[in-house]
Amino acid sequence: MPYPNGPEWSALQNRIITNEDGKIELSTVACGKLKLPSGQLMVCDPFAAMSKSGNAFIQIKPGEYEVIVTVADVSADLDGSHFREAYASLILDETQAESTRQPLELTLTEEPSQQPLQDGEFYGYGVDAGTACFADAQTIKSDMPDEDTWYDDLFESENRDSWFDQMDDEKLIRRGIANIRLPLTNSDNNLILFHSGWGDGFYPVVGGYSADGTLIAIHTDFHVVELSEYEDEDEDEDKDETTDSATQPLVTESSVNAEVMTRETKPWWKFWS
């Protein structure tokens, strides 16, 4: 079944699986609620791609939504010594089960481009600072100071509540994840940051739908769970039931980001392993 509907999809799951690199153990981390007063959901690199205005977004119903990150223990002995963020998910309706998924497009208007996708392709966004986030486009516009102050005053300031320090603080959520109050907000508007799996790359946004076609979750997949040689140990699936990753093109040109990449393109981190 074409991505993102194959058996390898593992967002929001707690289990051990086996892929081409060995066993990995997945678990979920609650990150608190994200306030989306405009419903304009941004998914982007906050340090390298976010602007005060003009950010691409997906329009959903305004509200406050739970954010959950699925982390993967990729250590050789599954001893918790090496974690990577595999997925980040915004939960729109926790009462319904997810039965199907499809790529979602980030745009500068409320209307997607309707650009056709081939099987397995998706719209995506670029990460250049090893971090992604969920945020509301309008609260970024109203509750952030001038952009030229962001790095010195917010990201890496001398204050203990700098964004980098909050992401490194294991006493908050966990290292690599932070729920950050926007500096100029009067109503606790926030954004939620998380490391992007193995680092920089081009990642999809995926909508999760209930059986009746209702959008109930929005995910971003950091490609930590590989598609080939997949086995679910909890369900004891036949090891011969695999997905051919070389036939799964996963990124197409979109109206927001014109980068094109496929699973046939070896991810940059594989060259160093």
UniProtKB/TrEMBL annotation:
Region (Disordered): 229-256
Compositionally biased region (Polar residues): 245-256
Highest taxon of source: Bacteria
Start-end of Acidic residues biased regions: 229-243
InterPro entries noted in UniProt: DUF4241
Protein name as catalogued: DUF4241 domain-containing protein
Organism per entry: Colwellia asteriadis
Classification lineage: Bacteria, Pseudomonadati, Pseudomonadota, Gammaproteobacteria, Alteromonadales
